[in-house]
């Protein structure tokens, strides 16, 4: 890990909180934002400075002071990226800032009918949330180009980890084994996201774009089947996609099928994934429960 500094995370959600705790344990000063007053209190009790933030409620001037590394994990809204809009100029004027990471999504590539994409593949978003992500990426890269912000873009695959995985879905009875021909999803364990961000901080290349996905794109039913096997229960019955009666949001995830290459994080950043497939990742989820 690079020499300790001050990390600021816009959006202390699932990924942001894992990253913040890892850096706090390494001796960094850590701060960030959360919309929940209760969560801000919990984070403060752990030593993480926590602030409220949204488009209508900017941060106080002192919140960003001394930040050396910034992660933006706040989703864009209809008007664009709120962090870039409200605090882009403040970040560009921050003399201490050495690195900024924007967390985007592999959804920007759209549907590739199961084909492979890498960071040189042109974006082709086909749902509104992915279109907003493309505009947010463009806003941050424009700040890099026009104001010298040290921006790095990370396109994340589907995130999972303890408390948010096929293990939890099967155990709760919410899991569905929906079968759609030629459908594949890409995934990434939350701890591997933190590892990739750390590696980029150690080898910064402003303007770079990185796919953050594991080594094995897989059909959506396979992690459900593996979770059931690990738990020693029968998997839920297979249901054809056409008969699944999914919500519009759930169905939208089945619109896109693609395989995401992750060579750049390995070749350029030297990353070795701790959880190269969902199998290792799901075993870790169970192990983490035992540790807790």
Automatic annotation (TrEMBL):
Annotated CDD domains: SDR_a4
Alphabetical list of InterPro entries matching this protein: Epimerase_deHydtase, NAD(P)-bd_dom_sf
Key words, A-Z: NAD
Keyword Ligase: no
Matching Pfam families: Epimerase
Domain of life per record: Bacteria
Domain NAD-dependent epimerase/dehydratase: 12-213
Identification of the protein by name: Nucleoside-diphosphate-sugar epimerase
Organism: Caenispirillum bisanense
């Amino acid at each position: 890990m690079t020499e300790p500094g001050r990390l600021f995370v816009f959006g202390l959600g699932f990924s942001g909180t894992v990253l913040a705790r890892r850096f706090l344990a390494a001796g960094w000063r850590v701060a960030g934002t959360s919309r929940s007053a209760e969560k801000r209190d919990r984070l403060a009790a752990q030593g993480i400075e926590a602030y409220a933030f949204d488009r209508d409620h900017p941060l106080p001037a002192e919140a960003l002071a001394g930040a050396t590394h910034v992660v933006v994990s706040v989703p864009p809204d209809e008007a664009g990226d709120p962090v870039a809009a409200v605090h882009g100029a403040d970040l560009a004027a921050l003399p201490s800032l050495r690195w900024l990471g924007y967390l985007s999504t592999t959804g920007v590539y759209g549907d590739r009918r199961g084909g492979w994409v890498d960071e040189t593949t042109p974006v082709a978003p086909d749902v509104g949330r992915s279109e907003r992500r493309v505009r947010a990426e463009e806003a941050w890269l424009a700040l890099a180009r026009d104001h010298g912000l040290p921006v790095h873009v990370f396109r994340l695959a589907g995130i999972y980890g303890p408390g948010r995985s096929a293990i939890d879905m099967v155990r709760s009875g919410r899991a569905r084994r929906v079968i759609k021909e030629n459908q594949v999803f890409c995934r990434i364990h939350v701890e591997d996201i933190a590892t990739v961000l750390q590696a980029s901080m150690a080898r910064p290349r402003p303007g770079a774009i990185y796919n953050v996905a594991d080594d094995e794109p897989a059909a959506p039913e396979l992690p459900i089947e593996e979770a059931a096997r690990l738990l020693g229960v029968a998997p839920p019955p297979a249901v054809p996609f056409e008969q699944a009666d999914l919500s519009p949001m759930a169905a939208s995830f089945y619109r896109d099928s693609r395989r995401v290459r992750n060579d750049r994080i390995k070749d350029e950043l030297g990353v070795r994934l701790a959880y190269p497939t969902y199998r290792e990742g799901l075993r870790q989820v169970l192990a983490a429960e035992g540790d807790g």
